[in-house]
Fold each of these.
Amino acid sequence: MGTEAEKTAKLLGGARTYPMRLETRSRTEFKDITGLLEKLILESGVANGTCLVFVPHTTAGILINENDDPNLQIDFDNFLKRLAPRAQDYQHNDGNCDAHLKAAVIGASKTLLIENGRLALGRWQGVFFCEFDGPRRRELRVKVIPD
Amino acid sequence: MGTEAEKTAKLLGGARTYPMRLETRSRTEFKDITGLLEKLILESGVANGTCLVFVPHTTAGILINENDDPNLQIDFDNFLKRLAPRAQDYQHNDGNCDAHLKAAVIGASKTLLIENGRLALGRWQGVFFCEFDGPRRRELRVKVIPD
Amino acid sequence: MGTEAEKTAKLLGGARTYPMRLETRSRTEFKDITGLLEKLILESGVANGTCLVFVPHTTAGILINENDDPNLQIDFDNFLKRLAPRAQDYQHNDGNCDAHLKAAVIGASKTLLIENGRLALGRWQGVFFCEFDGPRRRELRVKVIPD
């Protein structure tokens, strides 16, 4: 309504979660979502704060690393394939156990900083949505928390 | 006491950290703590916010992944055993070096989202406390931060 | 200025990000930054809250694990070298691909809890800045968020 307390709550509260939809096009894919996140943060109007990226899937993850040389994505893929080969004798027997293991290594929940209305990333850093069992329609939940 | 500022502080502040005690029963165990976390969030009264789960141990971790097929836990266990075999020539020579390495891969600190009084998990997701050097009495610290 | 809303904002807001500079001395290094973080938290005046540590680099990470036995750092190093050998046929061909892979496993963004003006770490836990492509001058961004 209009009490001082409510005015302040509006000023200070204002953490909000945004859904984000993605489509992946191959079994494994490192999809650069840095631009999508920047756009969302701009629209949120938050100048300084925190940005939580959460993947509500069990065969995908979020990776913060170099997005300059696309060759590196091939190395990430090969690296994870060596750690968790697809064709191995797994107990979870539906053909995508390797994807669960890769997702466990990369992680489904990452925290980023927002400074001056932008992601506070290093010069070479980007944010990747890592698909390990595509192609699929995927969803992300992105929470933007003002300082 | 009763100024507007203090009223607002009560409304908006209210982040709280809860201790959680666990007991594990074997050397390696993937203990599903989703239900325990949901209960704690319900009791906190927080409808929307963030839930930080922190493990104050160096041979355990938190994993967010599928909790539907219990066989997958055997695969996680075998996978990590292949990466970090127990019987290997380690410098840290007290018999649990493999557990430190596994904990480093899985991670001791994870961030979850709270929506409508519940964890905002995907359909197949659960949260596991990962024991790598049990059986032991363990502790978690869970911080619930309202939006 | 001086409205109640502004007074409350000062009381409750107050999340701040601090830059931290580091220098590493060898290609791989596990640099214990627990003391530096504790000092920064003390200076921030925050008694209870959250501490986000973010590495704006793509060949370094943050690890929360035992900092008591320095031998364990040799094991972490050997473990990661086995997972991602430096001399291998990589696509990202500038001689530090292994460092990107190690950084992806360890992670660039970690969340810690602050309780009673200190990091809420377990008895054996410390926080390491992990250098995988040093020696270099590095930077960290540390956000301290009061409850």
Amino acid sequence: MIIVADNMQVTNPDVAEAISTRNPEPLEKLVKACIEAGADAIDINPGPLKKNAAEIMTFLVQTVRGVTPNTILLDTTSAPAIEAGLAASEGRAVINGFSLEPEKLVHILPLAKRFDADIIGYVLYPDSRVPTDETEFLEITLELLAEAEKAGIDPGKLIVDPVVAPLIWENGVAHNRSLLSFLGRLPELAGYPLRSAAGLSNLTTGRGASAEKKRLAERTFLPMMAAAGLSMVLMQVFRKEVVDTARACDVLTSPRTIFSWASLTVL
Amino acid sequence: MIIVADNMQVTNPDVAEAISTRNPEPLEKLVKACIEAGADAIDINPGPLKKNAAEIMTFLVQTVRGVTPNTILLDTTSAPAIEAGLAASEGRAVINGFSLEPEKLVHILPLAKRFDADIIGYVLYPDSRVPTDETEFLEITLELLAEAEKAGIDPGKLIVDPVVAPLIWENGVAHNRSLLSFLGRLPELAGYPLRSAAGLSNLTTGRGASAEKKRLAERTFLPMMAAAGLSMVLMQVFRKEVVDTARACDVLTSPRTIFSWASLTVL
């Protein structure tokens, strides 16, 4: 399972400040810390970027690239920002992402073709509603695959994100149960090992719980997704016990591991 | 998921000492502590019991019953001990267990019929070899079901235990992966919600790893089994983070929960 740090987001005041002052130093420090904490890839989430979108994303991608050759995820709804990010990333960038929302199909999806880039497709209705059962997850996924095909994109470039629901949502638990069944049936549905991604932080979003309870929920749900075949998890990588869990998931689900306790790291 | 404490076993020197001196006090203390730690049921494992089998099991069951009305698992290969345990347990005892081994089919399986008791069936070949892939798990389970039927036992009384493999076994990881697929297909195979049990301590048996790594492996594998539908886990209940995980599994896989953070306990 690829661990993607989603720590670099504009909702973090230090990141917002560094972006608005174009100060690379705190961002470089953050990226280094993420890599040390176990990140295989870095998600750059500068928000929707109404002004200076391309220039800001170029600044951010160059800043990350100055620290690491690891994969970058371009996490914004701004097509110009994604385009600039793809140009600046020297390959190894993933578009994060598109959905059936017409705006995204028109402006974001074609960038995957143009830059031959991987792209994450959100399993959401065009109006951003979430599906409620396994059948709905499957139907939307087929539409994402059809749209990608229409846009001339190699299906191997697609990564689906079934969108983890916050537990505090009225149907959050039921949604996440359906998500697990869906992940388990994905290879059969696609007829090839279609990759999947999930944002774990969504699970415990909101107030009303201690950090300890949130980590417990995250480190319990992650192995469930891993066993169902999840390929990529977006998470806050400074949550050590959750990173340990992600690595342990790899060891326990590996089709080829000759087990050794040394392969299980407690970071 | 029912949490069964497997702490009361003869391999624990204090337990062995209490058994040989018929001293109930340390055992009562142990059972109380297990219940406080979150045990829903108590597994009594006095070993194979060559001498005084019935008398020892009667003593143990009465000792546990003096502390708690919770379900007792009678975990021994001695049929006379199981029989005595069933008689002493005032209902709510589970036979743990039988397999396709002829000795057990003849002497242990019929006790389930006679006492109308639940019985755990180990998914093992008659010579105690473990199955290696999902198909073998399924075939053995069908044989367990057939043997139970032949013995006149209501299939609803059967609980299958696919036997978690130690990670350090040559094929341990692969075996446990097959176990997960098997658990997921169990309801479809049986045509009804056939219950399952698994001994988590097996996973990390042996030397060569820190307690921290062992707990990491256990709390990572348990949610995988829970998502696949595991009904009952045998475990050392003084491993707090694993008990927390078992409870969190229940919350995350519940078909009916209206989620509240209060339902997630960090014991």
